[in-house]
Write a structure and sequence with these properties.
Strand content: 25-35%
CATH architecture of the largest domain: Sandwich
Low-confidence stretches: 1-22
Structural class: mainly beta
Number of domains: 2
CATH superfamily of the largest domain: Thaumatin
Helix content: under 10%
Radius of gyration: 23 Å
Number of helices: 5
Shape: globular
Distance between the termini: 38 Å
CATH class of the largest domain: Mainly Beta
Number of strands: 28
Length: 494
């Protein structure tokens, strides 16, 4: 019997990890005086990513946020520039003028998250914005630096300017691009995964590798101290199978006893469960998948695929997801670095999966899990997960998790005496979709697809699993290559 749950692929081996600190800034408000508000960051001479939040404090303002070589007194000194235009739309500088690839309106007192992918050597940048409650949109691709700055060799300052109206800019994070590329070899590794703290509070990063999927020789329960801090994982070129990463918040000094994310792991890796209440249900937001074997490594030198017959190497592609089949905790955004063609499965549109607008307040509190009325007692389920000791909201169950996860519901006894079911029980099977007895088609046309939870995930997250056989929406595949990597940012729980 197959009980589909996330991706149970296989991967393997590893050799190390490097961590670092992206540069982060606080908030500044430009108030329509025509003065550039400058703030320095470490000089960037290569490719890098800059993200920030901008809030227009009135409608139809004229305000820009730009990156420059040192502090500037006028906007002509800014190279990569985004603008809240007086016509109520967002655009960006492209050489000698402002332009946009799409009509993207803005409204007063709402916060917009911008992402700039900048290449100083090429003097180009691509601009993306996430409107509140919506998916990320493309403002422009490979726009040229402002004409006056077409020869700049370094960017080291952020400037905020407003000619009319006010604009509040917060949370600038500048992250140098990883040193991807280079030749692959059976004993080599490359930095192919970066996890970033997008929250102004300490965060812990946990991981687990699949059975016989290899050993990731990297710190577990790793603490990211504040906004912009990150950890990079050196993934073996020969592949790594069945690995999962998830965040924790409110943990003790050892990365245990967390308010969020204490869903456990092997004791041999130092995991413990909170006393008396046990480990949390595994509703964590996550990144998981299989890193494939990179060409030209010979098949016989690739990591073996533990999910296939003996002697079968891992594929030449990465298969991965940000599944919310079990629920969610923190909002997140994933960016693919490098070339990942669209397909079925393939890479996400624009190379981005954006679940940054997920909120606990969105979690269904009156979910109908009655299997079309067969079990009336399950017709009004609250999917919010609360911590047993503090009563704080710490997650959102998916339908299958609410029905089948024993932790903090029916285990341990005492203190919990709730009712949960096995995935094959009649009350749960059309939400868990174990095969057999439930076929793929029965699952995809069954009651789970009409739940508020599945609709929420599909509306707030692109390319993300919301139930077991949601493969068309949730599974991503990219070429396994030294210059293809993934950057996952987890944001504060809200």
């Amino acid at each position: 019997m197959r009980i589909p749950r996330l991706l149970v692929f296989s991967l393997a081996a590893s050799l190390g990890c490097a961590s670092g600190q992206a540069f982060a800034q606080g908030c500044v408000t430009a108030t329509g005086t025509g003065v550039v508000q400058n703030a320095a960051f470490p000089a960037q001479t290569g490719s890098f990513t800059a993200t920030f939040d901008a809030t227009p404090l009135a409608a139809s303002i004229n305000s820009t946020v730009g990156l420059s070589n040192g502090a500037q007194s006028s906007t002509t000194g800014l190279a990569a520039i985004v603008r809240f235009n007086t016509n109520g739309r967002i655009d960006a500088r492209n050489g000698g003028g402002y332009a946009a690839d799409a009509v993207i309106p803005y409204s007063a007192n709402l916060t917009y998250r911008f992402r700039l992918e900048v290449s100083v050597p090429a003097h180009t940048y691509s601009i993306f914005v996430t409107p509140p409650g919506a998916a990320e949109r493309t403002v422009g691709t490979n726009f040229a630096f402002r004409s006056e700055q077409s020869g700049v060799t370094s960017l080291s300052s952020r400037g905020v300017w407003s000619g009319s109206g006010s604009n509040r800019v917060c949370n600038l994070i500048v992250t140098p691009s990883g040193g991807g590329g280079g030749a692959a070899c059976p004993t080599c590794t490359h930095k192919r995964l970066k996890i970033v703290n997008g929250c102004g509070q300490p965060m812990w990063v946990f991981y687990q590798t699949g059975f016989q999927g290899g050993v990731l020789n990297a710190p577990n329960r790793h603490r990211l101290g504040g906004l912009g801090s990150f950890i990079e994982y050196d993934i073996p070129d020969k592949g790594l199978a069945g690995v999962r990463f998830w965040p924790g918040m409110g943990c003790d000094a050892t990365g245990n006893n967390c308010l969020i994310g204490a869903s456990g792991g092997p004791a041999s890796d130092g995991f413990t469960c909170p006393a008396m209440i046990g480990c949390a249900p595994a509703v964590d937001s996550k990144f998981e998948g299989t890193f494939g074997c990179i060409s030209p490594i010979a098949s016989g030198q690739c990591q073996q695929n533990p999910s296939a017959p003996p002697g079968t190497p891992l594929p030449r592609d990465d298969f991965w997801d940000t599944s919310m089949v079990d629920g969610y905790t923190l909002p997140l955004r994933l960016v693919v670095r490098g070339t990942c063609p669209l397909g079925n499965p393939g890479g996400p549109p624009g190379g981005v999966i954006d679940c940054s607008t997920l909120r606990f307040s969105d979690c269904p509190q009156n979910e109908d899990l009655s299997t079309n009325g067969q079990f009336p007692a399950l017709g009004n389920q609250n999917l919010l997960l609360r911590h047993p000791n503090t009563n704080q909201i710490v997650g959102c169950y998916s339908p299958v998790a609410k029905l089948t996860f024993v932790h903090w519901q029916s285990l341990p006894r005492p203190p919990f005496f709730g009712t949960t079911f096995a995935p094959t029980d009649p009350q749960a099977r059309m939400y868990a979709c174990p095969t057999p007895p439930v076929s793929v088609e029965q699952c995809r046309t069954g009651p789970v697809i009409n739940t508020d939870f599945v609709n929420l995930i599909h509306n707030r997250c692109n390319n993300t699993y919301a139930y077991a056989y949601d493969d068309v929406a949730g599974l991503s595949r990219c070429p396994a290559a030294t210059n293809v990597s993934y950057e996952v940012t987890f944001f504060c729980p809200q």
